[in-house]
Amino acid sequence: MNNERLNQAINYETLLLASNYNNALVDKIYNDNKNDLVAPLLTNFSKFAEFLDINSENLCKFYFKVRDKFSMLPKKSNIICTDDDTWPKRIDEFPYCPKFLYYMGDIDLLDKKIVSIVGTKAPSDEDKTLVTKTVEALIKKGIVVSTGLSLGIGGQASAESVKHFAPTIAVIGTGLNQYYPTDHKKLQTFIATEGGLVITMVSPASPSQNFKFNFLLRNRLLSALSNAILIIDERDNGGAIKMTEVALENKRDVYFYSSLLKREDLKWPKEFNKIEGVHVVRYPGNLANKVIGYVPKRKDRSKTLKPSGTKDVQLSLF
């Protein structure tokens, strides 16, 4: 792990905690004093305590509290910031763009074509079959599957990628030292250590009361990192629907299968079908081709047409 990035992240989270999460104030302090924040904050307590209008002793307590939280990060954790070459530029345009990203695994996967698969936490057998076929089709085209590692559709899509020995991305809503849902602890660990990528914008010092909000941020990051989002199935106003609405606002393509248009229990497919940026596909292969921009060639029928006035050779034999 880069020590300068570690110091910056710890210092930034310390300033947030000490300011009672006054993001506007802390962002200004951080942007104006980046060079001083690459070293441990304890070398400059008085200066930053003055910025926050608190005494140095209190700032010191906050610092060690945050540093203890960061010590819980797994050994192979990494931290990047907006100044790094590996920073994914595609997320800069999104609201709530973080100062840091925390990850384990292969960060270069973010340079590939990425499709995020989202959907219901209670998939039907048909949904599960469709997930399997979709992941297989995407992998064949070299497309990386990304999910929020949630129960149901998301977790299955990640597991299917692992099953096919394909690298996959898990965008989580907790710190790297946490697992939610806990049922996916082994899956998350495998992705992080066996060629995939686990990434989050949530620091290990994030307060527990931010838990629900962090998952909203997770959804934004999931869509921001993707080239496209696929909804396998979801109830009206479900979490996946809300996430894709954010994706559309930020000009990400959204796909769903045509079979959902026949569902009388769902309103959103017919409503989404009218929105620019939403694409309806019939089969997983169609989805994969659209994402990579491949247009199948039509057969040249001119080669099979006979000039007018000619007879079929076989018929002339009789």
Give a short synopsis of this structure.
The chain is an alpha/beta fold and 318 residues long. 40% of the residues lie in helices and 13% in strands. The protein folds into two domains: 3-71; 101-292, 3-Layer(aba) Sandwich (Rossmann fold).
Helix content: 40-55%
Ranges where pLDDT stays below 50 over 5 or more residues in a row are 301-318
The biggest beta sheet reads: 9 strands, mixed
The number of distinct structural domains comes to 2
Q: How far is the N terminus from the C terminus? A: 83 Å
Q: N-to-C SSE series?
A: HHHHEEEHEHEHEHEHEHEHH
| Largest beta sheet: strand ordering | 1-2-6-5-4-3-7-8-9
Q: Count of helical segments?
A: 12
CATH topology of the largest domain: Rossmann fold
- Share in β-strands: 5-15%
- From the alpha carbons, calculate the radius of gyration and give it in angstroms: 25 Å
CATH class of the largest domain: Alpha Beta
Which outline best applies?
elongated
Annotated CATH architecture of the largest domain: 3-Layer(aba) Sandwich
| Category from helices, strands and their pairing | alpha/beta
**Tally of DSSP β-strands:** 9
What's the average pLDDT? 89
List the SSEs and their pairings.
Elements: H1 3-18, H2 23-32, H3 45-52, H4 56-70, E1 78-81, E2 100-105, E3 114-118, H5 125-140, E4 144-147, H6 153-163, E5 168-171, H7 185-193, E6 197-200, H8 211-224, E7 228-231, H9 239-249, E8 253-257, H10 268-272, E9 278-281, H11 284-292, H12 313-316
Parallel strand pairs: 3-4, 3-7, 4-5, 5-6, 7-8, 8-9
Antiparallel strand pairs: 1-2, 2-6
Helix pairs in contact: 1-4, 3-4, 5-6, 5-11, 8-9
